[in-house]
Amino acid sequence: MNEDLKVNLSGLPRDYLDAGAAENVSAAVSSQVPVVEPEPELVVNPWDIVLCTSGTLISCENAIVVLIIFHNPSLRAPMFLLIGSLALADLLAGIGLIINFVFAYMLQSEATKLVTIGLIVASFSASVCSLLAITVDRYLSLYYALTYHSERTVTFTYVMLIMLWGTSICLGLLPIMGWNCLRDESTCSVVRPLTKNNAAILSVSFLFMFALMLQLYIQICKIVMRHAHQIALQHHFLATSHYVTTRKGVSTLAIILGTFAACWMPFTLYSLIADYTYPSIYTYATLLPATYNSIINPVIYAFRNQEIQKALCLICCGCIPSSLSQRARSPSDV
């Protein structure tokens, strides 16, 4: 009887106590056995795939331009140096987009984020600055047509290249040198880890360069129209030729400037008004067209050029088509 009192002091039935003891034992055993949780599946953002694909296309396309200019000694004029600078900047931008995808899903760390964003900022900055330098070179080639082919022009071109690449590299080093939002997320822009102030400076700089390019292309358009008018008067076919040549030149300039604005303006304006709290889909939707500008640049500036077309034909088929060798440059080829 004393044994029964000692075991059943709680007043619960014996079979309930036995069941409870069994549950406690199983719980103690399970707490000692490590629980292996399944590893989370790697989910890839479709927008990142599109950006990586865009980067691959940018890299392949601009690598062709860089190789053509580098391996052809005749393509050393200031114009080709600037086109080569544009192609090199876009090539690095494409590589940066590919590296960003690889690091984002395979090697995640603060250092890789800073290096990647630094490369992308520097390369896209150099691309935009190269476009401005090409615009300046085209204006000088028309405004100072008699003295354009001189040593002074070559020196000025090298000065522009040094300045634009030096500025772009400095902009790319800012996140790496500490101007980032990794320690304070509230200061992040739409592109992490760039700060809101950093993105604002880049956006304002772009708007300034776009305004300068617009002004230069307006002046170029006036010069082209004046030259076409003079040529038409000399050949006595003002009514038809002057209209066709002028319209072609204006259309070319409109395509160049319109494409540049359409690609970069959405992301520029969005970076000014938005921050890290905005949905990321808006960032992707505005950033993707900006990358398309680096895809279109070789078509507008390189593959339309007669000398580059000849070099490309020599590489591909070992001959120059008669249509290229006999083609004359007109005032509308700007």
What does this protein look like?
It is globular, with a radius of gyration of 31 Å. It has one domain: Rhodopsin 7-helix transmembrane proteins (Rhopdopsin 7-helix transmembrane proteins), CATH 1.20.1070. The longest helix has 40 residues. With 334 residues, it is mainly alpha-helical. Helix 7 runs antiparallel to helix 8. The N terminus and C terminus are likely disordered.
- The amount of helix comes to over 70%
CATH class: Mainly Alpha
Total number of helices: 11
SSE string, helix = H, strand = E? HHHHHHHHHHH
Report the portion of residues in β strands.
Answer: under 5%
How is this structure best summarized?
It contains 11 helices and no strands.
Main attributes of the structure:
single chain, about 325 residues, Rhopdopsin 7-helix transmembrane proteins, globular, glycoprotein, G-protein coupled receptor
Question: Secondary structure elements and their pairing?
Answer:
Elements: H1 2-7, H2 14-32, H3 46-71, H4 78-106, H5 110-143, H6 151-176, H7 196-235, H8 238-273, H9 280-302, H10 306-317, H11 322-325
